[in-house]
Amino acid sequence: MDISTVSIEIEGDYLSSFIYSGVLFLVDMDFKLNSYSWDRVVNLALGNKFRIGNSDLRKYLLNSSRNKIKEKFNGRRYFITKRDLQKANERSIYIGVWPSDINLYRNTIYIASEAGVNTIHIKWEMGNLTEYKSNVKIWDCPSFRISPNSFYRLAIASGQEGLVTVIPQKKYVEDKDVKVRVKSVCTDCDWYKNRLVANTVGGVSVLDFEPIPDIKDYENHIEEYWRIVNQVKLEDPLQGNIKKIDNKTVVNSWFGGNKEFFLTEDMTIAFRTLNPDQQNNKTLMYQIEEDSIVTARTATFGTVVETKDTLKLIGQENGFHTLDNDFVTWRVFPRSKYYANQIHIIKDKSIVISAIDPKNDNLEASFGFSLGDVELDKEL
Amino acid sequence: MKFSAYKVNHVHRGGLPIHQKSQWTVPEWDELRLFLMGYDRNWVDGKNNIWNVAQNMGAIGRDTAGDLSVAKYVCNQNEWHGYTVSPKRNGDKPPSEVVKTWVAEGIIKKKDGTNIMQGKV
Q1: Which of A64, A111, A130, A316 is most exposed by smallest CB count within 10 Å?
Q2: Would residue B92 count as lying in a domain?
Q3: Quick check: A325 and A333 in contact, CB under 8 A?
Q4: Residues of chain A numbered 218-277 and touching chain B (CB < 8 Å)
Q5: What pLDDT shows up at residue A187?
Q6: B113 touches chain A (CB under 8 A)
Q7: Is residue B33 part of a domain?
Q8: Is some CB atom of chain A closer than 8 A to the CB atom of B96?
């Protein structure tokens, strides 16, 4: 498949990364969570911002999801030393763990580790992170993956404990807000809109939650709105299993934009559109010639598949692109308004942040998605 | 941490089928050596379990899905025994500081440490 990329490589020994509303978060080997102004990181990477073309490139890197990379920039990679990166540093906090997952939603950082899940509230002023506020534990069993949703709801893939949801009725999480939904060893989950999938040793479970009403429909009845919201939050989801798709056994599932993705036992990636009109849902498939797949996730530019030694990008049905074969870990940001076309690849002594555009525009039939099809987080 | 004995648990050495219990694939002396090293280095979690890992993620055990490289040792009435685990399939993992040490000392690669913490192996 044909793609365009622009990358920034930052020197340093990192364990985890996240990007959110103009702030790049990096966890280093000393278990410190550092935040950096993405704007300043981009300026450091590009150097002289008055150089011809740099303003286009800068604009692109700051909000790459809505723009297309110009051909003349394709393949460029910029470097920032560890020392220079300090010029963009905003705040640091010691988190004390090697995070298995980090996520950020509505000014709350969620950190999953063997110690459970902690939340850190952050304060913003003029687009900058100015303070890490309270660090509060909301779950205390080993956790692997987290998936936040609206109204401070959170799904936790909590290993031996199974799939856990945290659905607070008030500002602070109470014991009654925490429920084990699937009692099977679970190390992966994904929650998009009203559907939550749990990838467990017992198979793929799906939980369909009652939709939370839109506040616009209750303009003059705010009390009534919140009464209904709290009622809906108490309702148990409909639970089932995804066993087969087109007669292939499903072993893993996740979401990308408005599409539901599946990995099947024979190493096929399949997707169908999340559409109320299920009859028109066509399933597209791509079989990967590998013995096993470690994990996969989807960004606008396609589906990234991790095998034992390689990161492959599946775009259309007719081929793949090798993204990297010397990586430690990686992540994409399918729920982000500005960074849905970024991939962060952590290596032994650096992190490479790439913005990728597919050259084929037939996104409907692609293993990526179009931002226009997705209800995105407003972020702030 | 109390200690009166280490016992090789037969359920992890053919006493029970592999679909019920993971099985060691290295000799008892290696099982014990990994335990003593973990004990000596204080590679302990919050519940006083001891952890160790095979050099370069080599195989020291097996379950129905494949080879296992991480060992966990638990204590029952001062008597210890150990077994091999898969963070992915057992949903359990060693403490962050312990895995950091394994990486820093070159026992395993950073990627292996990440895979353990993220439950990918």
Answers
A1: A130
A2: no
A3: no
A4: none
A5: 97
A6: yes
A7: yes
A8: yes
